Amino acid sequence: MSKRTWRVLAITLAVALVAAACGDSDDDDEPSATTAADGTTTTGGAETTAAPETTGDTETTGEGGGAADLSDVGTVTLGLAYGVTDAGLESITELAIQAVEVAAALGEEAGLDVEVIIEDTAGDPVQAVDAANALVAQGPSCILGAARSNESTAIVPITADAQIPQISWGSTSPALTTIDDDDFFFRTLVSDAAQGDVAGNYAFDEVGATTAAVVVQNDPYGIGLGDAFTAAFTAAGGEVVDRVNIDTGATDFSAEVDNIVAANPDMIYNVLFGPEFIPFVQELAQADAASVEKLFTADAQNNVDASAGIEDLIAGVMGLRPTGVDLTAFTEFFTAEAGNEPGTFTEYSFDAAMICMAAAAAAGSNDPVAIRDALRDVTNGGTEYDFSQSVELIQAAAAGEDVDYVGAGSTLNLDDNGDVDATGAAYTVYVFNPDGTVADEGTVLEFGA
Q: What is the CATH number of domain 3-189+345-405?
């Protein structure tokens, strides 16, 4: 399948999902529409696209057990539980979907038959459950997603019960490390136990803050990151003078802002998505303009969705985000393949698709359990392949070679919990430009350094 075909597919999927989201949101009994890679759309109680047949034992070569002929693997179906209509991550999700189509095209080039199906999680755990159930009904090889930790927390029981590996490219809550998943939950980026630690030490050691207010999203992501920051900051000698957990959808922050201003912290560590961050900043600026300069943000705000309408207020505000193994090289690679540059977390979405396909090739099967069992094999030890060698990676895995995919976003050394080994995890300090975009400030921090 050509790259152009995959791009057209992505547009078709996005349009179909947006159209579904614009329907009657009060009808909880009617699932959202699903557009399959063959163009089939299903809604309501209509017959769904037949799940691809899984392959059993296949003829193998080499010691790795892969299929010598990739056509023996069967169709590898990538089921995306992505927030297409998630207002807080809209721009991120658009590029994350494009990353999957780029990876899928490379899988096709290697010799796999790849199908992509999408269900919209909309940034809502309830809708994420509907999306996961709809995907499970279509029999995917892997389910990629979700982005938000509260969505992944909600759907892990579904994917685990269905015995389909779930690979998140954005859920960083430390609580997901120990979630009851029957070993079916994985992620391609490091837990926020590392990011919070790095941010807390940076705030005390480099910024020179001795007091901080912690303002986070009231969900597993925000709470986990806030707790990790607090632990590191206080261990370094700092004091948290105020802690606020903001509910998703909240719009009035007057009481919280008044308390923060009165506490007069050196830093306001803020972990909010755009829909909550924007009005919070507006109210903070009205109460005390100088307090806006104390903001230090996280990866949740590292996108234009978090700055719309407040560009002038947050120009110069800094934050922290995870940085890929070599984002310069990945940017060049992705731009050549997709025709545009990647965005925040694009690399992690690419990696999620790639390790599913590599594991299928290594297992010689599109069976979800077989793929689950091969995920650690293709990401730990063996001959290293990076994102620019994706075709070679899949073909080598199929030939039975012991391969080690070094991801675009992380080393991808998956541990017993399905987490990426945090050793040496790197984070970049970014700054908001006057136009609301973000740029690297130049400081790169390493976990454990």
A: 3.40.50.2300
Q: Which residue has the tokens 């120009």?
A: 315
CA dihedral 368→369→371→375, nearest 10 degrees, is 130
- Name residue 272's amino acid: L
> What residue spans define the domains of the chain?
3-189+345-405, 193-321
> Concatenated DSSP letters for 276-337?
HHHHHHHHHHHH-HHHHTTEEE-GGGSSGGGTTT-HHHHTT-EEEEE--SSHHHHHHHHHHH
Domains 3-189+345-405 and 193-321 share a fold: yes
Cα of 252 vs its chain's centroid, Å: 29
Segment 177-206 mean pLDDT:
97
What pLDDT digit, counting tens, does each position of 80-117 carry?
999 999 999 999 999 999 999 999 999 999 999 999 99
SS3 118: strand
C-beta neighbour count of 444 within 10 angstroms:
12
Nearest by Cα to 42 from 31, 51, 50, 33: 33
Identify the helix (H) or strand (E) that includes residue 397: helix 390-398
DSSP label at 429?
E
**378: which 2 tokens?**
């293709």
Q: Are 268 and 291 in contact (CB under 8 A)?
A: yes
Alpha-carbon gap, residue 191 to 9, rounded angstroms: 32
Backbone conformation region of residue 118, classed left if phi is above 0, alpha if psi is from -120 to 50, else beta = beta
pTM for this model (two decimals): 0.84
Q: Are 116 and 101 in contact (CB under 8 A)?
A: yes
d(CA 316, CA 294): 10
- Give the tens place of pLDDT for each residue, 137-157: 999 999 999 999 999 999 999
| Pair of tokens at residue 99 | 């990353």
**Under CATH, what is the fold of the domain 193-321?**
Rossmann fold (3.40.50)
Give the pair of three-digit tokens for residue 236.
């370094």
**C-alpha 174: how far from its chain's center?**
14
Spatial contact of 312 and 283, defined as CB atoms under 8 Å apart: no
User: Over the stretch 357-381, which tens digit does the pLDDT of each residue have?
Assistant: 999 999 999 999 999 999 999 999 9
